[in-house]
């Protein structure tokens, strides 16, 4: 198939540091190329891919100090997609909702994965106005706040099987917190759980400008109070395998409707169990008693730390291999692309009109 992947411009694909959506776009794009599809990636110019790259901006917007407003750049992105839209059998958007009014003429070949939270008050009115767009959720729980829309499926994220090697042997005896410092991620819970458990806690997380006050007011004093807590800072992909792989467990003490939680399957890939609060997608990702423990309180989390020896790290990795590889994710999306109402007809007709042949490649 000829497939367009349309990425956000905030981060490169893949991102240098934090950036869950762009990371998934990268894993999906590279796996689709590996499977033999012709993929075009619309993204920032500092992206790295084996697909054809359409560099909409010179660099990722978050890293460009000259950028004040991202909207003009996303308008440029949408115009670039519109100009080439008839080349593709399927167009896969990862930019939330900004494109929807502009793709009505080729809506039958479009699908949008919603990567963020959907419980925001302004979203229902928008999606009621555009009910015909094919949407993908990244967990079933993510769908709950939405009005009736055209759900094409739920497709869980996946990682390349060889990206994060499993560490089956003994851990280094610390608990890990990885991701972003924010109130909904509840690093304060992680600090208290570690303190009560008597284990060191290592926090590898970015601090966005919007969360700087929260860090200074709520979290930094806790880090200073407890000698077992060490703030590592933001880490890159190469550092992640060692950081997660050497941990006894990943703490995922969230307090919000997490749409997916990529860090959970990153830990599982490293054969590191996850102790997660029952919020959002957690019950869909963690197999309680196999890949980790699902808890409802800090007391239960402390008790779960004491039971980590009951978990077989090889089985944690096996749970990842069974459900959360990029190969599985890409296969799910290819099936969805084929099922789009315009995927096999309109694009094929346009190619015939240009004399490019009429047969579509069908994989899997």
From TrEMBL:
InterPro entries: Glyco_trans_1, Glyco_trans_4-like_N
Ranges where the Glycosyl transferase family domain occurs: 172-305
Residue span, Glycosyltransferase subfamily 4-like N-terminal domain: 18-124
Keyword set, alphabetical order: Transferase
Keyword flag Transferase: yes
Superkingdom of origin organism: Bacteria
Gene Ontology molecular function, alphabetical: glycosyltransferase activity
Pfam families recorded: Glyco_transf_4, Glycos_transf_1
UniProt-recorded name of the protein: Putative glycosyltransferase
